[in-house]
Amino acid sequence: MEVEKGSWLVVVIAGFVALYGLLKRVNEWYYETRLGEKKFSLPPGDMGLPLIGNMWSFLRAFKSSDPDSFLNSFVKRYGRTGIYKAFMFGCPTIMVTIPETCRQVLMDDEQFGPGWPKSTLELIGKKSFIGISYEEHKRLRKLTAAPVNGPEALSVYMEYISKTVISALEKWSDMGEIEFLTQLRKLTFRIIAYIFLSSEGDPVMEDLEREYTALNHGVRAMAVNVPGFAYHKALKARKKLVAILQSVLDKRRSNRESGNSQEKKDMMDSLMDMEDESGRKLNDEEIIDVLIMYLNAGHESSGHITMWATVFLQKNPEFFQKAKTEQEEIVKKRPPTQKGLTLKEYRQMDYLSKVVDETLRVVNISMVVFREALTDVKIRKIPHSSSNFTSSNSFVIPKGWKVQVWFRNVHMDSEVHPNPKEFNPSRWDGFIPKAGAYLPFGAGSRLCPGNDLAKLEISIFLHYFLLNYRLERINPECGMKYLPHPRPVDNCLARVRRNSSPSL
After folding, report:
1. Which spans are transmembrane here (predicted)?
2. What is the pTM for the complete model shown?
3. Is residue 448 a known part of a binding site?
4. How much of the chain is in helix, strand and coil states, percent to nearest 5?
5. Residue 201 φ/ψ, nearest 5 degrees
6. Which residues of the chain have pLDDT under 50?
7. Which helix (H) or strand (E) holds 408?
8. What Rg, from alpha-carbon coordinates, does the chain have?
9. What angle do CA 159, 161, 162 make, to 5 degrees?
């Protein structure tokens, strides 16, 4: 009897193993057989289970203490090819993970278009930068470049950013324990909202800030529109955001028609006035989607990077003192009649710029971007790529397949950046990374449109913090969360202490 039970158990286990093996082949059979001979030129990889694909592995890794284990598993199994097939966000996908392949995808607008997941497109907006065609992207970028990143615009923003940062630091130093990240996100949202919607009152700003938190948690979630899931909550937040911004648009348009518009203009006014060479203006959907994208990226990324730069500096006294000394020298050289920072002084912050660059590399706020192959694309194998997978010297990305460009893997690759987990701003001394080796804001025509504004904002905060304050974390060894962005579980619970003898 015991032998029979044991035999049945073996049979059951073997059956499950066989069934699992069959299920693991379903995606490959379904998507690869239609490729014909091209399937033999696909990169190596694993397309996971039906429908789910590799998403459970991805989520499991990024909810653990080792998010890099997801891609490392591909490298261990298939070698450092720099390109792998997978099934992500409901689509057959090619993941590119090293500088050479990342650069080729990002720079080639003729063969690669936007390919963001449904959840991201629905939440950020189909008419925002991430969803539109190359020509529309070029047009919209040209219209918005100067008001966001232009030297004149940055000079104007500096005064407000400085004033807001000084006030916030003074307030936090009197509050005792605070969630440093939460307060920074409020600060960066206040700044970006002022730039885009300065004419609106506090109630509108508070409503927008509340909905953005829910929106951001759903941007990289699976598109499951069921109560309880992050995507469902984010969709509801998106609807509220659209309603708020549409109301502001309608009000401004009505005031203009009645002659009651305010003289002071912000980014929303600029977007309403913009015309291209043919006289075409942005419609309401385009304006709202651009605002949603900028407001979301403008405070989430800046808030998180500012927190990590502060934490890294405070944790490394040598780097802290070097950055502080640079800021003190800038203040010493300032004419007596000058009040506050200038754009010229900001551009003299050589070491602080390296601190920000290194923080962007280590933290990887934008860990991956999404493209889609517009035609069959050949990707040359890198020299140390094995030739066991195909007889040719290149892999093929099939037309219509999604392509993920993994910035995180590039930045954390020891063959690209030695000791990649170590925060070391001095690694940038006299070092110019090869093309594709440093991608915090992407590359090519779809480079992040607010990159200069983001770095300015972060640097201004660090300038005033280094001169006058220090950070004391309450739980410096607390755990981490990596989705949607890397952050401490306690949101960096800390005290901001004012120096007894401030430098400014």
Report:
1. 6-23
2. 0.89
3. yes
4. 55, 10, 35
5. -85, 175
6. 1, 3, 19, 385-390
7. helix 407-411
8. 25
9. 65
